[in-house]
Design the sequence.
């Protein structure tokens, strides 16, 4: 992660509040005590942060049930960020191509924190039976195909640090890989073949396939993935998806690097 030297504590605390309220289970709103306890902020500090965020419509307050939730101004900011993000503009045609080839819902994700990834773009399948996702959804980095694509290209020490920081790998389903050696071996396989397959590790009945997109330093900056119903696919089909996503992810990497190499930096 970035150098902590220049981090402003007040802003970091405000971000932690926004991150907490953005989790799927919290989007309907949480009260002061719940927010304070979950972010490890004392009540008075947490209250002042909430009041400041509310002033600028980053959050809204329900006076009846005394809960806070994300505010409408974040919708505006997210829309503007999407419009002005050249990375997303480059990737959109390839995202559509991936969905067309696989006939599955395809997603671009980015690392959000040490242990979370976030969906930043999507292309849903036209199939009647498909997985519906939302931009902004977060997923654990250790239990999803896209998360493991990020982990596979980190050093062993970095992976160990992440696992330790979250208290070990959480078992979401009977198919979650939680045994340490098996998990690390799985990351090696992902790096060797260039794509990740996760079968019902995050949610029963749902499997995922993902391939990494690299920056100029050969670090994984984004991941191209798809989600599918496990009952509809075979292992052969999952590997077909993996090969297809890997090829398209490589095209995105090439296109992005070509653009940034030709763009003067000031």
Sequence:
């Amino acid at each position: 992660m970035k150098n902590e030297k220049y981090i402003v504590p007040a802003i970091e605390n405000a971000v932690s509040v926004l991150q907490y309220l953005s989790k799927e289970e919290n989007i309907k709103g949480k009260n002061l005590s719940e927010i304070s306890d979950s972010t490890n902020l004392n009540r008075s500090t947490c209250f002042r942060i909430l009041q400041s965020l509310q002033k600028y419509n980053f959050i809204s307050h329900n006076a009846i049930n005394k809960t806070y939730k994300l505010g409408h101004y974040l919708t505006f900011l997210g829309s503007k960020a999407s419009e002005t993000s050249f990375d997303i503009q480059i990737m959109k045609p390839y995202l559509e191509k991936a969905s067309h080839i696989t006939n599955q819902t395809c997603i671009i994700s980015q690392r959000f924190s040490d242990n979370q990834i976030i969906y930043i773009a999507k292309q849903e399948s036209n199939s009647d039976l498909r997985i519906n996702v939302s931009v902004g959804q977060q997923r654990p980095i250790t239990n999803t195909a896209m998360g493991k694509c990020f982990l596979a290209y980190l050093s062993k020490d970095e992976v160990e640090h992440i696992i330790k920081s979250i208290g070990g790998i959480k078992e979401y389903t009977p198919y979650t890989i939680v045994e340490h050696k098996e998990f690390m071996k799985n990351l090696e396989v992902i790096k060797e073949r260039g794509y990740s397959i996760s079968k019902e590790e995050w949610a029963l009945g749902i499997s995922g396939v993902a391939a990494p997109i690299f920056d100029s330093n050969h670090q994984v900056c984004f991941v191209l993935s798809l989600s599918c119903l496990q009952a509809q696919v075979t292992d052969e089909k999952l590997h077909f998806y993996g090969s297809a996503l890997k090829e398209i992810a490589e095209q995105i990497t090439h296109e992005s690097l070509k653009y940034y190499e030709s763009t003067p930096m000031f």
Remarks:
- The mean pLDDT is 88.
- The beta strands are 59-62, 67-70, 105-111, 116-123, 138-140, 196-203, 206-214, 220-229.
- The chain has nine helices and eight strands.
- The longest strand covers residues 220-229.
